Amino acid sequence: MTYGEALAWLYGTQRFGIKLGLENIQQLLRQLDVPSKGQRIIHVAGTNGKASVCAMIDSICRAHGYRTGLFTSPHLVTYRERIRVDGQMIEPEEVAAGLTAIRDDVAGWDPHPTFFEITTALALDHFKKSSCEIIVLETGLGGRLDATNALMPVVSVITPIGYDHQKWLGNTLEEIAGEKAGIIKPGVPVVSARQERAAENVIRTRAAECDTSLEFAATMSTVIDRRYNVGLVGEHQKENAALAIAAVRAGQIDVSDDAIARGLANVEWPARFQRWDERIVIDGAHNPAGAEILAKTWRKEFGDQRATIILAMLQDKDTEGIWRALAPIASRVLLPRIRAQRALSPEETAAIITSITPSLPYSITESFGEALASARAASDPILITGSLHFAGEALAELGGDPDALEDCAQ
Hints:
By secondary structure, the chain is α/β, with parallel strands linked by helices.
């Protein structure tokens, strides 16, 4: 298969839906004989900050000289973003060859592996062929039954837990935390960010059941400020940096303080308060906790100056909770129609916005390009937010190649 044909086949597997469970992925990993013996895995779960923490760990380890594999999701513009070796995306021909082999291997399976199971297997196969020493794995959904949980890590990492994906993970913080804490395994050390008390209690209970060490990375903003420069913007990124440092140390991965400093200073990750230019910020916040952090970071960076917000949401997200967090920093809001199949319509979004902030000006536009032109015509700074999927569409458009956007339904 070509790269395009391979992706078409892979996206076709989305008809099998999301299946939480480990049997298929365990069989796939046995068939591919991955991971290699000696590859050390760092496993990261949580609600917010997972990708940033993964990127920081990867950057620190690379700065020390390790050959690293980084697996994250979803992608923003191209599928290849999900799988990186030493910071470089997997090549199209490697995607094509890997997916062709997996397709032939699983042709007769019942149940058929899902999109995410296949992608996880492809990543681990690529990391083996690339002789990666350290592998950083971000969970896709939850933790306990996520495909990435079929691996045995040297450390388990839990970022802040909040409300998201309730359809799959439960409607209470305790239920959601139970799924996230499912990555904790006997004898594998755990490091966690600060948590709400309900989530903290669940994590402590699970760690005790597994008879393993547990460390809550204390707030280290002042220490980070004094010793390190973090390449990602926002006070919360300092806490993410503290968690990344704690994870590397708990996993007994030898890194120098100089590598930590260079890794944190040089870390890059798109759509996390990304300054595109002097006026435009792109942020993939897609739940209330993420939106609150975004609003706080906006105030720190822009003071009392409000934003023209270009907003697009997905149907299964808490639009009301997100808008309540963002409304105080908005001067007006533009609601474009976007390409994502799961997008909430601008009309539905507008109804929620007007019910909360009836006097705030808003406009519905037929495309992101039209919304961007309208935003640029005014003098306010511009905030593009609402989902990672929308951030990807915006990045492709801003980069001058909207056709570069590949399907990112998962």
